[in-house]
Design brief:
The chain is α/β, with parallel strands linked by helices. The chain folds into 2 domains: about 1-110 and about 280-329, ATPase, nucleotide binding domain (Nucleotidyltransferase, domain 5); about 120-275, Nucleotidyltransferase, domain 5, CATH 3.30.420.40. The chain is built from 9 helices and 12 strands. Strands 3-2-1-4-5 form a 5-stranded mixed β-sheet, with helices on both faces. It has a 5-stranded mixed β-sheet with strand order 8-7-6-11-12, sandwiched between helices. A two-stranded antiparallel ribbon has the order 9-10. The two termini are about 25 Å apart. Bound molecules: adenosine-5'-triphosphate and fe (ii) ion (FE2). Fe (ii) ion binds next to helix 3.
Length: about 325
């Protein structure tokens, strides 16, 4: 079985093709970079309409149309206009080649491609990107958000700070570079509320430290140490609550070596395995959408075209999990 997947929840489009053995045959992403700050939802949608056609042509040059058995797309969560273009693209293809269609949850796709690409079997997942910051776990037959940010995502926090200091995009990369040469720890707000964290107060405080002429290296170092400690703390607490034996890190911020190092130390202390998929499968991509489509389809999931209306606040626990064997519950 060969599935094509369309990812388009926010400012990126991705098309991926994967077979039921988990072999990725095509996987390419195009990022929409707005001319001015911030994503305008309508402009992101226009970008999607244009780039999906381009990506689809490239994909079909690698895997011919006749070989595609299933069409999958990101149903949510995400920005309404982006999701609508994604759904429309997938529906048009499904109708024109007369093959089944499946809409999948974006966050769960991150977890499932991570499991495919690492040795993780049933991990507690820390998903950290520009738009999301969540601790996810499969418990009680559902994927549940055990902890999350109460305001902005970690990637967004790093990017906003970087922009404030005139660093190029993507900000997280440059914050990490500066942080390597920081040696003074500046105290910043540390906000953990039970299983959740808050980052906006930390962001404001870090910007103020920069404005008051603290060394940028020291502010970046302190911002990373503080925010990553918060992430590590809620992940550690989630481990205790869920009794999982593995931790997996996914999302664009998973590229950060200091975050990996801190989680690695915590996992060693807790005696659990730690996994990070390779970069291509950490960030948003089409292959992860195609893979979750395959898992659901092979386990009996069918969707009518009428079921393919985007769900912008599609929570992980709304998904009926039919692909994880009973003994893993
Ligand atoms: P999603 O739609 O899942 O929220 P996204 O659109 O934010 O994803 P990703 O590629 O998953 O896309 O993540 C991008 C984020 O990762 C940006 O905020 C960027 O600054 C951050 N990032 C990239 N590299 C690093 C790094 N080395 N350290 C910290 N953050 C990083
Ligand atoms: Fe994502």
């Amino acid at each position: 079985l060969i599935c094509i997947g369309f990812e388009g929840t926010a400012e990126k489009t991705g098309v991926g093709i994967i077979n039921s053995k988990g072999e990725v045959l095509f996987n390419k992403t195009i990022i929409y970079t707005p001319p001015v700050q911030g994503i305008h939802p309508r402009e992101a949608a226009d970008h999607h309409a244009e780039t999906f056609v381009k990506l689809l042509k490239e994909a079909l040059a690698v895997v011919p149309l006749e070989k595609i058995d299933l069409v999958s797309f990101s149903l949510g969560p995400g920005l309404g206009p982006s999701l609508r273009v994604t759904a429309t693209t997938a529906r048009a293809l499904s109708l024109s080649i007369n093959k089944p269609i499946i809409g999948v949850n974006h966050c769960i796709s991150h977890v499932e491609i991570g499991k495919l690409k690492t040795d993780a079997v049933d991990p507690l997942t820390l998903y950290v990107s520009g738009g999301n910051t969540q601790v996810l776990a499969y418990t009680g037959k559902k994927y549940r958000v055990i902890g999350e940010t109460l305001d902005i995502a970690i990637g967004n926090c790093l990017d906003q700070f970087a922009r404030h200091c005139n660093m190029p995009h993507p900000g997280g990369v440059y914050v990490e570079k500066y942080a390597k040469n920081g040696n003074k720890f500046i105290k910043l707000p540390y906000t953990v509320k039970g299983m959740d964290i808050s980052l906006s107060g930390l962001l404001t405080a870090a910007m103020k430290k920069y404005d008051s002429k603290e060394r940028i290296e020291d502010v970046c170092h302190s911002l990373q140490e503080t925010s990553f400690s918060m992430l590590t703390e809620i992940t550690e607490r989630a481990l205790a609550h869920t009794n999982k034996a593995e931790v997996m890190l996914v999302g664009g911020v998973a590229a950060n070596n200091r975050l990996k190092e801190m989680l690695n130390v915590m996992c060693a202390e807790q005696n659990v395995d730690f996994y990070v998929p390779e970069r291509e499968f950490c960030g948003d991509n089409g292959a992860m959408i195609a893979w979750l489509g395959i898992l659901q389809y092979l386990n009996g999931k069918r969707m009518d075209l009428n079921d393919t209306k985007p769900i912008s606040n599609y929570r992980s626990d709304m998904v009926e999990v039919n692909w994880i064997p009973e003994e893993n519950n």
